[in-house]
Amino acid sequence: MKRIAVLTSGGDAPGMNAAVRAVTKVALSKGMEVFGIKRGYMGMVHDEIFQMDGSHVSGIIDRGGTVLLTARCSEFKDPKFRAIAAENLKKRGIEGIVVIGGDGSYRGADLLAKEHGFKVVGLPGTIDNDIIGTDYTIGFDTCLNTILDAMSKLRDTATSHERTILIEVMGRHAGDLALHASLAGGGDGLVIPEVKEPIEMLAYQIKERRRQGKLHDIILIAEGAGSVFDFEKQLKEKITTDVRSIVLGHIQRGGIPSGFDRVLATRMGAKAVELLENGEGGVMVGIESNALVTHPISFAWEGTRKYDIKKDFELAMKLSK
Ligand code: ADP
Ligand code: F6P
Questions:
Q1: Please, are residues 135 and 286 in contact by the beta-carbon 8 Å criterion?
Q2: What percent of the chain has pLDDT over 90?
Q3: Per residue in 85-107, pLDDT tens?
Q4: How far apart are CA 306 and CA 237, in angstroms?
Q5: pLDDT confidence of 321, banded at 50, 70, 90?
C-alpha cells in the first residue's frame, strides 16, 4: 500500500496528536505517502484532504487536542455522502485510512470499508475509556489526572467549609472516569451508570462519615448516571451538610497528554501503519495486558467487555467509607 490517510473524529482527546505523529512518521519511513483529513468525516466529504510531511507533525507530541481538527458529521450516516467521501479519497489514490476516534467513528469507517473497498484501521481515541476491545483508550489517563487535580483543589475548600462537594465528570455512558478518579483520588462516594444504587445509600454514607468526624465529602458522579444537580436536590432532602455541585466539563478534554497516553498513542499509531502495510484492514487496535492486539472493527459494538467494572466499584465503595 502506497497511500494512506489519517483523521481524528468525535470528541478530541489528549494524545490524538501523538497518534497522528506516529502514523505519519512511521508511514513516511516506509516510503508511503500520507494524507491528513481535516475535521474528521466532515473533511472527507468536503474534500479537506492534504498531503503531509514531517513538518506537519513536528512539535505536536506534547500538545492536547488534535492538529487535524475534529468534528461530528451526521451526513456521514447517509450512504450518498459516504460515496462522495470515497470519491475524494480515490482520486488521490488513497487505499488505507487510520481513524482515530470512538466507536461511532469506527461505525463510519466500517461502512466506508464495506461499501467502497478501503482498508480501515481504528485507533481508540476518547477520554471516556468506553471502547470494547482495549483496556485503555488514548486520552483517558490524561483526563483522569485532570480530574484528580480538580479533586485535590476541591477537597481543600470542602474541608475548610465542612462541605459535601459533588463533582460531575464526563464519560458519556461509561463510569470509568468517575470510578478511576474515586480509586486514585480517595473519593468519598461514587455514582456510575453501571451500578444502580438508591440515593439513600449515598446519604447514609455521608451521614456515617460525619458521625466518624470526617470534615468533607468529595462525591464523584458520572455524567451517564444523571445530572449532578438532580443528585444535589435529592441529597439535600436527606442530609444536613452544606452541599455544592460542580460540572467539571470540557476542561477534562484538554491539557498536555500524559506520558502514558503518548506512549499508548505512539505504539498504536505505528501498529496501524504496519497493519495497512500488510494489506490488513477492517480492524481496531487495542491494548490488553500491555500488549497491542487487533480485533475486527465491529468488536467495538458486538464484543463483550473484559473489564469487571462492578468489582472495582465495590473496591471504591469499601475505600470511601
Ligand atoms: P465517537 O467516535 O467518539 O463515538 P460519535 O459517536 O459522535 O463519536 O461519532 C463520530 C462521527 O462518526 C459521527 O459524527 C459520524 O460522522 C460518524 N458516525 C457515527 N455513527 C455512525 C454511523 N452509524 N454510520 C456512519 N457514520 C457514523
Ligand atoms: O466522548 C467524549 C465526550 O467528552 C463525552 O465524555 C461527553 O459526553 C461528550 O464527549 C461531550 O461532547 P461535546 O463536546 O459535544 O459537548
A1: yes
A2: 99
A3: 999 999 999 999 999 999 999 99
A4: 38
A5: confident
Q: How far is the CA of 81 from the centre of ligand 1 (A)?
A: 13
DSSP-derived 3-state class of residue 196: coil
The C-alpha angle 102, 103, 105, rounded to 5 degrees, equals: 70
Arithmetic mean of pLDDT, 27-38: 98
pLDDT digits (tens, 9 = 90+) for 269-279: 999 999 999 99
C-alpha cell at 287: 491494548
Mutate to test the pocket of ligand 2, among 72, 126, 129, 170 (most ligand atoms within 8 A of CB): 170
pTM: 0.98
Nearest ligand, measured from the Cα of 224: 2
Cα–Cα distance measured from residue 189 to residue 61, given in angstroms and rounded to the nearest whole number? 36
> How far is CA 162 from its chain centroid?
34
Q: Which cell numbers in the block locate residue 193? A: 451508570
Return the ligand 2 atom nearest residue 172 CA.
8
Amino acid in the structure at residue 45: V
Check the CA dihedral 84-86-92-98 and report its sign: positive
Query: Residue whose CA is closest, atom 8 of ligand 1?
Result: 10
> What is the C-alpha separation between 73 and 70, in angstroms, rounded?
9
Q: Closest by alpha carbon to 219, among 281, 147, 285?
A: 147
The three cell numbers locating residue 194 = 453501571
